[in-house]
Amino acid sequence: MADTVRIELQPLGAVLEAERGAPLRDILFRYGVEFPCGGKGRCRGCRVKVLSGELAVSSEHAELLSPDELAAGWRLACRARAGSPLVLELAQWEMSVLADESTFEFTPAEGFGVAIDLGTTTLAVQLVDLASGGVAGVETALNPQVRFGNDIMSRIQHSLDPAGAAELRQTIREALGVMVSRLAARAGHPVTRIAIVGNTAMHHLFCGLDAAPLAGAPFETPHLDACVFTKSELGWELAGNPSIRFLECVGGFVGSDVLAGAVAMGIGRRPTLEGLIDLGTNGEIVFGARGRTLCASTAAGPAFEGGGISCGMRAASGAISEVWAVNGEFGCRVLGGGTPRGVCGSGLVDAVAAAIEMGMVQPGGSLVARSTLPIAPGVDLVQRDIRELQLAKAAIAAGAGILLGRLGASVASVAQVHLAGAFGNYINRSSAARIGLLEFPLDVLRPAGNTALLGARMALFSAGFECREFAATRRQMEHIPLASDPRFEETYVERMRFAG
What we know:
Helix content is 29%, strand content 25%. By secondary structure, the protein is α/β, with parallel strands linked by helices. It has a domain at 4-89: Ubiquitin-like (UB roll), CATH 3.10.20.30. The chain has a 6-stranded mixed β-sheet, sandwiched between helices. The chain has a 6-stranded mixed β-sheet with strand order 21-20-12-13-14-22, sandwiched between helices. A 5-stranded mixed β-sheet has the order 2-1-5-3-4.
């Protein structure tokens, strides 16, 4: 009997040899198959269709997939192994990873540095010429920890087992080590400095810190300081002896990525009140002026990333990313063209805004005289989807309102709001305002690119790579735990309504 089996992936046309009996989860991850529940057989996010060959039907298959789906060949990749030759149908995750090549003032240094944005979902790594400040190379990838859970909390739960924590740590260190090594080889010169930023959970999971304090209320951790490593400690094969620094976090789920964004955008350094909002599962919000800055994280849930939505998906090929009203119906744009497979976060916001405009959704969120919103053939939003968006947008709007209130300010007094990250850059600002997600004048809202990566690149030029500016910004940032604010619940309920 052969030790390997042949697996063909459609529509990619990819053919690979896999060890007989190997879990499909380990094989298919690199080809775009998601494992939202961490491969525990609790969801339908890793479905693949068997076009040829055999995959046995387990109890999890029978529980989560309908008889018609099973008969059509659908299976859960996380519950299957490569026991015989297979031809599988799957949709490749062609996800764009946001980088940043903005210019800034700096003091030249010798050699090359590397800036890393370690995101929950994606990785962005830049090779930087410290003499010219130019970006000499870029590597992007999916965060391989996704195979252990699509969201932060799934990974934190996985890390509570020491073996799981080691698995998460080793997985991300190896992935980044390979990316950095490829960039360093391209430079032809040793890398001297490496700056890493990420949210608090990524900081803990990379650095080998106990993430248990982040697993439950009040979600506060004592491990916020920067962590410095040598290449041997990380197992990275690099020439020279670079200083590797994972920058400090601020508090709760406000990590070094938000701190880096605040430094990059100059939040709190100017007399005018400015904000930084990163829209995601854990939305981070910062407002500041004249040396005083407040920040918070709010559990918006996965709706902005297509999670928890009946037809939701990430911003990948086949996702409806834009929706508009046209003659009482919906028009839409599909990423990559072709037949839509679902709707991503930006499309969801657009769709609900268009539905409100056409009188299909009431300000309270109820569907009017219908059970679904037919966005495109085979893609329908249901009442529960509308509620998920309401919960997400209320969390962000309430968080912003609480911080502004503590600063004695109002929406009208904000000079500029920088929208960070991929979702913030691609969201339709008019739609966001229409549903009450961003309660600011449109001319105040400014897509700001990958501010975390820009801030990490700026850190490479800090005198002696000690990142004193980051430490100073962190000292002036006051972290506000929203759950303990007596006004948050009331404000949250008020923000549940869509704009009238």
